[in-house]
Amino acid sequence: MSASNLPKKELFELPEGVIYLDGNSLGCLPKGVVDRASETIEREWGGQLIRAWNSADWISLPRRVGDRIARLVGAAEGSIATGDTLSIKVYQAVAAALKMRPGRKVVLSDSGNFPTDLYMVRGLLQTLDGGHELRTPEPEQVADSIDESVAAVLLTQVDYRTGRTHDMAEITRRAHEAGAVMIWDLAHSAGALPVDLAGCGTEFAVGCTYKYLNGGPGAPAFIYVRPDIVSGVEPALAGWMGHDAPFAMELFYRPAMSTERLRVGTPPIVQLAILDEALNVWEGVRLEDIRKASIELSELFIAEVERRCPQLTLASPRDAGKRGSQVSFAFENGYAAMQALIDRGVIGDFRAPNIMRFGLTPLYLDNGDIMSAAEVIEEVISEELYRDPKYNVRSRVT
């Protein structure tokens, strides 16, 4: 791999005999995380009890972690709040955007967006009961669908099924030309490719940290607000921790004078500590190097799988510049084939109706991993090992 400081396998707990191609769904466990979690639980919580909010500085941990994420997504210090879940952050961003454009009734997304984003928007619009509408054109039609009726545009930069990318700068420009508020979901972007939130001028961005940022299952989400508009953002969820002075115990909400106003409940300290430790693997890593290595890995993977397995159809864009850090193939027996792969130590995942997804994470993958994975995929497909009945039993998580 051309990036001299990649991969960083020595920084991760990688199971023997496993090639992990699912970092786009759940990242690997970084070394040091278990010790940090134990310290937070045993020494801080166990030894200091409630005093740890001050003595271990738990109270500022959400902000400190937010600033570390900011450096990975091209945002200024103080512009990212952490905590809660991605669904909650989507709700907050869309609700705030609608208040910023009270005369408009349309939220624009696309038909390929992650379902929970659309669920949250529909739930919000039903609650508002103000005649609002969610429009979901095909991804390729989004830019031309932005007009003066649109209050907010909500898009996931990298499609969760295929890895297809939206042009963040261009669509943000189109949204602003039409007077709409822009919201980006970075679930499959943060830690996978360079992002320039400040440069593109988007009002809001949201994201999760358990994928490419390796924060662990249920890791806290984050929300970005452009600094020049934050004082005018009205939180739909006015939580205690978003108050300007939480311990003044005032009866009425007075929002913090920063992005902290979009914090809601008590921060998940153990999970934030884990995420804080996990972010250490990014020290000295440039996102440009990550992107270059990701493209090299994905191009090799596509070439090898297509050469060995003509039964699979590339579902991701052929152009690497229009693809995130994952490669997807369509296959009629995709679910069973993925179970057979996992049984042989090559871990990807499946998304209905027929998509086999493979995440390419240069922090802990190299060319040798890709070649070995391609060999196993060839074995499973060419020998039709997926026809074993045990691989057709559907689990709740695919």
Automatic annotation (TrEMBL):
Enzyme Commission number, as recorded: 3.7.1.3
Single GO molecular function: pyridoxal phosphate binding
One GO CC annotation: cytoplasm
InterPro entries: Kynureninase, PyrdxlP-dep_Trfase, PyrdxlP-dep_Trfase_major, PyrdxlP-dep_Trfase_small
Cofactor annotation: pyridoxal 5'-phosphate
Keywords: Hydrolase, Pyridine nucleotide biosynthesis, Pyridoxal phosphate
Subunit details: Homodimer.
Family: Belongs to the kynureninase family.
Record-linked NCBIfam families: kynureninase
Function: Catalyzes the cleavage of L-kynurenine (L-Kyn) and L-3-hydroxykynurenine (L-3OHKyn) into anthranilic acid (AA) and 3-hydroxyanthranilic acid (3-OHAA), respectively.
UniProt-recorded name of the protein: Kynureninase
Organism listed in the record: Rhizobium fabae
